[in-house]
Amino acid sequence: MIVSTHHDIGGIGKPVRRAFADVGVAMLLAFAAGALYRATLLHRIYGNDGAMLADWTALPGGGYPQYHNVLYQPAAKLLELLLPRGLITAPDDPLWIAKSLGVVCAAIGVAFSYGCCRRLGIRAWPSVAGSAVLAVTPTIWFFAAAIEVHMQHFAVVSIGAFVTLSVPWRRAVLATVLTAPLFVVFALSHQSALTLGPAWLLLAQLARRRQGVAALRIAPLFFVGCAWFASLVLGHLLVQWCRDRGFAFGAGDLAHTVSQWRRPFCAQVIVDAVLLPLGVFVPIGLVAIVSRAVPGLLRGLAAVMMLPLISSIVWWGVTERGGYLTGSSFVLAALVAAWIAALRPRVAVPLALGLILLQGTFACWQLRAFDAEGFDLEVRVARITEQLGPNRIVLSCNDNAPKLDIWLPDAREENLLKRLSPGADLDAWCAIVQPMIATVVAQGRVVFDVSFDLRSDLPTIAREAMDRLQTYLRETFVVTVLEDPSWPLWIVEPRR
Fold first, then answer.
1. pTM here?
2. Per residue in 191-230, pLDDT tens?
3. Which of 492, 466, 464, 484 is nearest to 397 (CA)?
């Protein structure tokens, strides 16, 4: 009896020790990735969402309820409660929450990507290699260093995949119940959650195989899919409710966004949306996905998970530096890790190190090149502060910079672009904006940030509105132009 007990304890102890070792490795990966992202935080904003998210996390009042990715603000509030202020940014950085959230979520996503590799049965060191290549992938590194929502979605999906691979699929009903809430969170995190459904059914089959259970047949698999789809619909309804649209189904806003920003296809989209953001994952992933050394279900999972995303992005034409691919990118780490694991060690080890070095160098070059273009937020604050008049008012039409109020609480920035809704009547807009400007300028000189002139992606209505506004200012007031490659300013003063 004693011998038998000792045998049982030893049998249980080995998996437990392995699990603890995996937790330790995952934490080391998270800390290493987080330290890298912390050291390379961007000095500028990427896109208009970054400016909005910075405003919402740094200024009282929060964001406006029309935003699609409603999980971002609760996640930011939670991070503010849990994270020491000076851990990732300087203690006096007013954008610390938004910057820290990208770093933390990216590090979590890398750690759980490693966990997914291990749950798929890939050995430890190839799993580390695949996760490390993912950590320094251009799109992951870029959005970890930027202010955006993509790393939150990356973390949520990676955690969800790990949970799905871990729940007891020997009891399919219980496993389905335990995983269904994931789709609610996916929907709250990003509107691309719908694309995860088919791939998740394959992920469940992989999980069952790993647990020594036969694959689900068509009928029970259909019911699993229905349960998950119902959860996704519930998540969408919660998004609508959070956006003040009521607890009712509706896709009008999303359809409007897609139609408004869709661009004609050109080959450069493939380069900007796939090849540059994914780097070495493109050639190595293609090799792995046709390699018989990689399990067929994993190859199928990678194809079903990535191809719909890539196809939709190429069709839409909004490249987003590969940001829309990041949510499902844990599967790329698993695909490459499984391929590396099938190679001989004397080939696999130097190959893995070479991939990490090549991917990291390529990603770092892209990141530094973006920052080197200018538009440093601190430089903007310094230039405007130098020119502020006694009334401390700044006018702007730039949605690529957070409001000056964040750095100068006694100043007020009025972003006129926020008053311009899609399809607005420009005459009505001018009738509102021009008297307001006249009242403000009558109180003294006003700084007008005209850096929107440097943008090439403004919607047509915004460009027309800005042209009319500039014509009005030149005709009505004294305008002094202060040129700058990043932050050109106008000083607007009343005529004497």
1. 0.93
2. 899 899 999 999 999 999 999 999 999 999 999 999 999 9
3. 466
